[in-house]
Amino acid sequence: MKNFAKKLIATLLIAAFVIGVAPVSGFVDLFTKISYASDDYSLKKVDGVWYYFVDDEIDTNYVGLAKNAYGWWYVENGTIDFSYTGMAKNEYGWWYVTDGKLDLTYTGLAKNQYGWWYMNKGKLDLSYTGMAKNEYGWWYVKKGKLDKTYNGLAKNQYGWWYLNNGTINYDYVGLAKNQYGWWYITNGTIDFTYNGVAQNSYGWWNVRNGKVTSKAKEPNISNNPTTNESGTLGFMWDSEDQVFYSAKDPWQRAFGYNKVYDWAAQLVVIYIDTARIKFNYGGYDWLVQLWKGQYGFVLLGAEVGVYYKNEGTPIEHYVCTDNNKRLKVGYTCYDHDEVLFERSYQDTWWLTGFVPGKLDKFNDRSEMAIDLRITLKTTEMRKAFVGGLENLGFTYGKATKEDPDTYYVKGNDVYIYWQFITEM
């Protein structure tokens, strides 16, 4: 058909020169339109613009990939969108597009209305299982789709990593397993330099060059007079920092939090001050609670807890089961203006620290203070949190020992120096 049209136009052009029935330019325009209209492609160029045609009519409702002589292109509202970068579909499947054109060089994660997917050389690869990257970091992919339920070790070109809820947990320290055995993890990756013992849910283990080699005896720290008491509270001993602390997933997590726990603490010789920072954000009632004081007769300590419940729930019981709702927290605990211990800034729902010590008076915990940094997830969440602080009596200030019970803001970080305010 196309060759016939060209021959027909050529014949008409010759006739025009002979008999002068039409200007040459008019026949050139006619030839152009007929030649494009006779292409087998759905994309056709008219007056310098590429349009998507169906049955010789421009389809302004079409969204997806379409083809011309130069390749496949992303079409929206009936014309090529040269600004589009992302996933798009044609009759052969899902593909990756860069600046409006099919990009067969792209390998990595991309998003459509159904979630994040692994693209291999520009095409959706449903056979891939492993790690892949997007602008938010490294993630675990199962059969082509990002899997936020995955917890465990996975590998990329930089080594083995510990993933929690589908993404690298750079705060994780402990044991984790892959198909080659159990390994010691530091800051989210296998630590091949570690030699010592480590604990998991199955007990204590000897570790050599980062790998578990054999069963180990439980370390003997019975010479420390506080060991038995701290053990009954479910805490672990960090011999390097010389501080007791709670693990990321201790037995207490299953029970959440309510005020009764603070009242009952007195029955086991725990004398503490507390500040409950309550605020509403994202459909939840949030509680960030601070504690400091005497834990048993021989331990001084401090805690920061992050809890939530469904918005408007009348019962004042909070939970802490969703790792996505953890916040980044770090603090320094003081006693008589001297540093008692520090807890490093980390993603957590409960950050604790306890060291041997004793208050001058059990009923006066104001000799202790916490210098705290907490990072909220969004600007809106930070504003709501600050509102909760001010409701308790905290004021904007320097957040130092010279200016206690004050806070200041830097981005979504809130810095607090807490000493005298208490609800106990």
Number of strands: 36
Q: Number of helix segments? A: 5
- Structural category is mainly beta
Rg value = 33 Å
Number of domains: 3
Q: Strand share of the residues?
A: over 45%
Q: In order across it, which strands form the biggest sheet?
A: 31-30-33-36-35-34
Describe the global form: elongated
Mean pLDDT: 84
Describe the largest sheet: 6 strands, mixed
Low-confidence stretches: 1-38, 220-233
Question: What is the helix content?
Answer: 10-25%
Please give the alpha-carbon distance between the first and last residues. Answer: 90 Å
How is this structure best described in words?
- The chain has 424 residues and is mainly beta.
- It folds into three domains: 1-38, no CATH class; 148-215, left handed beta-beta-3-solenoid (Ribbon); 227-418, no CATH class.
- The protein is built from five helices and 36 strands.
- The strands form eleven sheets. The chain has a six-stranded mixed β-sheet with strand order 31-30-33-36-35-34, with helices on one face. It has a four-stranded antiparallel β-sheet with strand order 27-28-29-32, with helices on one face. Strands 1-2-3 form a three-stranded antiparallel β-sheet, with helices on one face.
- Helix 1 packs antiparallel against helix 2.
- The chain is elongated, with a radius of gyration of 33 Å.
